Amino acid sequence: MSKKLTKVLSVILAAAFILTLAACSTNNGKDTTAATTAAATTAAATTAPATADRVKIRWVGAEYGPVDENAPVKKIVEDRFGVELELIYVEATTYAEQMGLKFASKDIPDMFHARSPVIYREWVSQEVLCPLDLDTIKELAPGMYAEVDHWTQQVKVDLWESVRVDGVIYGMPQLNTDGMFAAPVIYRDDWMKNVGIEKEPETLEEWTDMLYKFAKNDPDGNGKADTYGLSQSGLNAFWGVYGYLPTIWSYLPDGTVGYGGVQPEMKDALAMFATWYKDGVLDPEYITGENTGGYWALSHSFINSRIGMSCHGSYYHWNPPYYEGHAGGSNYKPFMEVNPEGSYALAKHNPVMPDGSGVMSAGLGTTGSQGVMGYQVEDHPEVMEKILAIIDANYTDYDFYLMVKNGIEGEHWEFDENGVVVQTKAWQEKIKTYDSGLVASASIGCSNCFCPVQSMIHYQKLQKYQYDFANSTVAHYQTTINVKQLIMPSESEYITDLDTLRSTTFTDIITGAQPVDAFDQFVENWLAQGGKQITDEVNEVYKK
Q1: CB-based contacts of 325: which residues, under 8 Å, 6+ apart?
Q2: In CATH, what number does 3-175+368-396 get?
């Protein structure tokens, strides 16, 4: 914490406490009506300081279009927190380049976001970001601090590590609880019955038996040898039966951290996949993947009955309709159109060894994006206070969260009979005058503008049906978390070539272009070509 911030902290803590108390007191956490929300907004506007006394903040949101100067959400935020907002729109596709130009001309916003760990570390090295510390965050954004700590306990890895560089925090992690779930294991349960299997497989041996029958026993009954067990994504369910995943850093038995792709167990997995490829169980076109265009999460190989098992996309791309009128996941509708008499299921457990061991990859609960402040904010604690108060309201006030995500209740959105947020008819008509719904949302100041980081507890409440589905399916998978959260100093020099070396060697081994024993030479090459240096850096960090 800077000396200047320490001197004024006692003054701004009182204001932060009042703001936090107001944010937490809305109807004792219960859903409020539009009238209640409007009354709270009116009260906030009445007590807000005059414009001349307001703290000015230059704010870049993660928007799909510019925000109108008189946007209703912007005005509510300004009145509630006593701020004057200059909202700066930066086009998403050229975000890093445009921000770089701003930095070069010393035009550094107060609040913005780093969209990837690589960009984040680069900006830290350029010294354009404001350092933070957990004491400051805990005092000025207690709701955010508590929630990050909550999810840290859930995943057993310190989520603050994702924003630490050389021991210093420069940002706020964007939580993503979707990433806490492993990829789904999808299989054709109608094919399973067609080949004479009555029970969902659990062990590696049982899964292997079913995959072979999918490839060899004409599961679709068309009299043609045109089916395979699995393709590219399906391999993700089986790397981990041997204990490690090829792109994940894990704790090793000796207590150090190691890269999964070079562990001896990888050789066993590669040998198995090579056999599957040779025997025609693994789709010979697996290298190109399952998606042939359009939305990335569509598994065309599965939809078109080429394969009978998949791990493509996320769980919410496969769910059936949650209620009458719901469309279902993005793979559900096209699958049913192509296979009106067909069916599939999400496995209740990921494949395991007979002793029950075996893992799948799960994300850490962060997106890799970080909310950050310009370096000048360190010398303006009143700006930091306001920024953290606005962000903290996302975590402590559900009604505020709904407003900044969706707009004004009754004007832009309402709850339908299923308790789901839907656009009002009037807003639906208004949206037609914009290029897209995303641009329309940006114009009124909602969506991502004031959620550079957001509460996943509130998000899960808003997406209740989705998370009920996740908790009944993929939540039961045995998962492993990538314990390496930071970008290591030498990764920019080595990681691209190392990733290419791994993917090329593994593909060659699986397809038979190289023998399985080529794995041993790969490990030596990987270590010699920068892998050892990265491993040493990782272990130095985690030793501390």
Answers
A1: none
A2: 3.40.190.10
Q: What is the pLDDT of residues 482-533, one digit of tens each?
A: 888 778 889 989 999 999 999 999 999 999 999 999 999 999 999 999 999 9
Please state the CATH superfamily assignment of the domain spanning residues 186-362+477-543 in this structure.
Periplasmic binding protein-like II (3.40.190.10)
Beta strands in 495-537 (DSSP E): none
pLDDT reported for residue 448: 87
Asked if the domains at 3-175+368-396 and 186-362+477-543 fall in one CATH topology, the answer is yes
Q: Is residue 39 over pLDDT 70?
A: no
The secondary structure of 356-381, three-state, reads: CCCCEEECCCEEEEEEEEEHHHHHCH
Whether 292 has a pLDDT exceeding 80, the answer reads: yes
CA 480 to CA 93: how far, in whole Å?
Answer: 32
- Convert 426-457 to b/e letters by CB count within 10 Å (16 or more is b): ebeebbeeeeeebebbbbbbbbbbbbbbbbbb
